[in-house]
């Protein structure tokens, strides 16, 4: 009897909490359970193996035909990102779109590759705060991680050899094929950029950009007062004058990751974006009543544009149905159903 009263009291308390009320207002779907997204180095050897095996499984399944040149299911995701790139970066839907993209990738690993876990994230600050470098990150372990740097190509200036045009450009330390790790044997069929080519996975580690990934930079991002300030401070160039968390990660890994269109060709893309998504969720949780449903920003890079709202629909092409931004604001609700630890 006492136990029963206690449980009822708990239910009342939960119903009165502002977050639950907000959820009820939004009509968001209840999740029977939540996936737990963890930092790569906090996974057990078994969990690391399961994730890598699931990604390799996607790389062994045939493409479903969005883009003729895509060879595998893994390429299908890269194809969708390439196609939508001009609509999903430097705009208000940048964070919601990538949150949904990772959700669909994670669901596909589960439904088509029997994956039981959740997408891991890469908290780069744990590397650069200590070493001012990503070189020794467990993420790039040649045996238990994603393989390391690309083979050094002197004077490497990007896949089109033209990145010397970028302000502040410093050449990386790699540039060629990644010779180690589980993805050394996988050739991509899309990219660089929007051009389909058969090519190895490339990286060009560049510690010149490591500072942009420090915990001090994360703190400067999460202290932003509005979604508008937050999304701009997080995304980086060219909507900010200097490098920030998002472009910092792409530049620090380099090569494949450095291309705005084709960067999901590097499996590390998903870990980088999971960390950005986690930082967004940290920021949301700092003031849930104000931030759980706070979005803003222009809807396209070129006019005519409007400020996005929760009703703005996120395209996944043939990967998944359209969902409004409203449905991806709360990771604890359908269709997302995950939490970060
Ligand atoms: C995206 O796909 C559409 C339809 O196939 C095509 O017309 C368009 O050129 C593609 N855009 C890019 C950037 O690949
Ligand atoms: C480099 O060349 C590619 C392909 O022609 C082009 O899309 C890109 O904008 C160029 N980048 C710079 C920084 O000039
Ligand atoms: C993979 O791409 C590289 C070029 O990046 C090429 O030299 C190699 O022959 C390709 N391998 C296969 C099996 O197509
Ligand atoms: C911190 O964020 C503000 C935007 O509010 C920006 O102007 C400033 O440059 C950032 N500081 C650093 C060190 O990145
Ligand atoms: C869009 O919303 C932001 C943040 O609320 C605001 O600063 C900006 O002026 C709005 N832009 C337009 C075009 O309404
Ligand atoms: Cu992107």
From TrEMBL:
<keyword id="KW-0479">Metal-binding</keyword>
<feature type="signal peptide">
    <location>
        <begin position="1"/>
        <end position="24"/>
    </location>
</feature>
<dbReference type="GO" id="GO:0046872">
    <property type="term" value="F:metal ion binding"/>
</dbReference>
<keyword id="KW-0186">Copper</keyword>
<feature type="domain" description="Tyrosinase copper-binding">
    <location>
        <begin position="89"/>
        <end position="106"/>
    </location>
</feature>
<protein>
    <submittedName>
        <fullName>Tyrosinase</fullName>
    </submittedName>
</protein>
<feature type="domain" description="Tyrosinase copper-binding">
    <location>
        <begin position="266"/>
        <end position="277"/>
    </location>
</feature>
<dbReference type="InterPro" id="IPR002227">
    <property type="entry name" value="Tyrosinase_Cu-bd"/>
</dbReference>
<dbReference type="GO" id="GO:0016491">
    <property type="term" value="F:oxidoreductase activity"/>
</dbReference>
<keyword id="KW-0732">Signal</keyword>
<dbReference type="Pfam" id="PF00264">
    <property type="entry name" value="Tyrosinase"/>
</dbReference>
<dbReference type="InterPro" id="IPR008922">
    <property type="entry name" value="Di-copper_centre_dom_sf"/>
</dbReference>
<dbReference type="InterPro" id="IPR050316">
    <property type="entry name" value="Tyrosinase/Hemocyanin"/>
</dbReference>
């Amino acid at each position: 009897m006492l136990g029963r009263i206690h449980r009822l009291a708990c239910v009342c308390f939960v119903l009165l909490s502002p977050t639950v009320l907000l959820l009820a207002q939004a009509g968001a779907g209840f999740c029977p359970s939540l996936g737990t997204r963890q930092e790569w180095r906090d996974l057990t050897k078994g969990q690391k193996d399961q994730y890598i095996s699931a990604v390799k499984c996607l790389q062994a399944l045939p493409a479903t035909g969005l883009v003729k040149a895509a060879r595998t299911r893994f390429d299908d995701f890269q194809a969708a990102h390439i196609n939508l790139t001009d609509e999903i970066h430097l705009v208000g839907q940048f964070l919601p779109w990538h949150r949904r993209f990772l959700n669909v990738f994670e669901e596909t690993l589960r439904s088509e590759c029997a994956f039981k876990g959740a997408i891991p994230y890469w908290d780069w600050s744990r590397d650069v705060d200590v070493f001012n470098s990503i070189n020794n990150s467990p993420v790039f372990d040649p045996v238990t991680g994603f393989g390391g740097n690309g083979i050094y190509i002197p004077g490497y200036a990007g896949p089109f050899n033209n990145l010397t045009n970028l302000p502040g450009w410093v050449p990386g330390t790699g540039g060629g094929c990644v010779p180690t790790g589980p993805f050394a044997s996988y050739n991509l069929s899309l990219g660089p950029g929007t051009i389909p080519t058969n090519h190895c996975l490339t990286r060009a580690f560049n510690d010149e950009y490591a500072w942009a990934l420090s915990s001090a930079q994360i703190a400067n991002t999460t202290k932003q007062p509005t979604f508008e300030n937050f999304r701009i401070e997080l995304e980086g160039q060219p909507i900010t004058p200097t490098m920030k968390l998002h472009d910092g990660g792409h530049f620090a890994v380099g090569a494949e990751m450095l291309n705005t269109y084709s960067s999901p060709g590097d499996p590390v893309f998903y870990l980088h974006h999971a960390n950005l998504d986690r930082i967004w969720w940290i920021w949301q949780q700092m003031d849930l009543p104000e931030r759980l449903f706070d979005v803003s920003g222009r809807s396209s890079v070129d006019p005519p544009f409007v400020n996005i709202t929760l009703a703005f629909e996120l395209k996944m092409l043939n990967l998944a149905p359209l969902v409004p931004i409203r449905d991806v604001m709360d990771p604890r609700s359908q269709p997302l159903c995950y939490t970060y630890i």
